[in-house]
Amino acid sequence: MFKDNDFLYIDYTSKIKDTGEVIDTTNEEEAKKANIYNPEKKYKPLLVILGEHRVIQGLEEALYNFNENEEKDFEVPPEKAYGERDPSKVKIVSLGELKRQGVNPYPNMLIRLQDGNYATVKSVSGGRVILDLNHPYAGKTILYHVKVVKVVKDDVEKLKSLLDRWFGENNKIGLELSEDKKSVKISIPKEYFLLEDLQTRKYILAKDILTYVLPESAVTYTETYNKETFKG
Amino acid sequence: MFKDNDFLYIDYTSKIKDTGEVIDTTNEEEAKKANIYNPEKKYKPLLVILGEHRVIQGLEEALYNFNENEEKDFEVPPEKAYGERDPSKVKIVSLGELKRQGVNPYPNMLIRLQDGNYATVKSVSGGRVILDLNHPYAGKTILYHVKVVKVVKDDVEKLKSLLDRWFGENNKIGLELSEDKKSVKISIPKEYFLLEDLQTRKYILAKDILTYVLPESAVTYTETYNKETFKG
Q1: Which of A102, A120, A186, A201 is least crowded, fewest Cβ atoms below 10 Å from its Cβ?
Q2: Letter string b/e over residues B156-187, b meaning 16 or more CB atoms within 10 A of that residue's CB
């Protein structure tokens, strides 16, 4: 049994119940088997902070009832996954109009509309195209297979988990938590000084630390420049 | 007599020798009189670091031979100001072509060409337009009236001058120089955390400090977040 603000690492695979289609997985072999392998993605356990609402609602709710190392299957109904289907989001548009936008539609094609929304092509006939603007998984019950592989209890370990989340594993960022836990010192090495979104990552990391780990702390970033910084 | 890396504040007015046209001035009254007053601009002495090459070459060279509070007039030839005129940069283009680009040219108009360069319209006649791609002040001798109003000698004052340059006067940034001058601590208050180019300003400021003031120092920025940072 877990509670708000607990840090869990989970392995999971999610599938559409009706079809068995694999949506997502943290397991590289599963991804390859399901033909959704992405070489850009790192297949590794996912950090979930309970109460953060970064994962599908039904998955997060189920996690409260796990124990460490427990492995379970469960299903999540549409309203706690990708939402119910909204029939009013099915529209008929003219084939000519889509072609003018540079789209040559065929059934099951996922297209991006000019307003930025995505739609699935349901059918093309007689110069008319039926588009479905619902999320492709709307109305679907999702099957989850989940294992809680690790629970992070130590505050310093929690801080490291957040560092990994925002700066990647194997980052070279220094971390120091004072004895009284009132002060977190994070030193950014020069490799990161020209990272375009450094300021944003620091902002979000500090917010996560103060929200989920040490609300009463001060998080201080330091960045040190010397003449070596500007060489080569 | 000044030398490389000296920090001077100067008041100046520059004019085209031929015509007396005022190009630029640090004096608000002069700017208004010359009809070049810009309400967005702060009229105040300009920081010049000798050897930095941020101002017109002939002006910088002349400044080495000033004394504090000295006020002088001198002229700068084109090759040490805006360059010689290059006659091959005068081109004939068709009036129709410019109109297609949305430009309706008239003599002395400054226009921006599609390649990003600026040009001055010299004449328009018979469907042909003569454009001059030289800098408007190329080939001109420039008259300077300059006063060195202040020389910054103290290292902390130099650091403050650089802070003013990159973060504006009246900035709330904290500054601390250690006794042995090996360490400069700059604390950035939360008002600046979401400044889009904060990281760039910090980078350039550190570079200026290490180049012109304290080459052997370490410049350390600190930014502290706590729960107050994210309120309101």
Answers
A1: A102
A2: eebbbbbbebbbeeebebeeebeeeeebbbbb
Regarding an ipTM greater than 0.95, the answer is no
Question: Nearest Cβ partner of B225 from A195, A198, A206?
Answer: A206
When pLDDT is cut at 50, 70 and 90, the band that residue B231 belongs to is: confident
Residue A232 one-letter amino acid: G
Nearest to A230 among B210, B224, B226 (CB): B210
Structure tokens at A150: 């690790």
Residue A40: exposure state from Cβ atoms within 10 A (0-12, 13-18, ≥19): exposed
**Which uninterrupted H or E stretch holds A62?**
helix A57-63
Binary contact (B221, A218; C-beta < 8 A)? no
Mutation test of the interface with chain A: which of B159, B201, B227, B229, choosing the one with the most A Cβ atoms within 10 A?
A: B227
Domains and CATH numbers, chain B: 1-83+139-153 (3.10.50.40), 87-132 (2.40.10.330), 154-232 (3.30.70.2210)
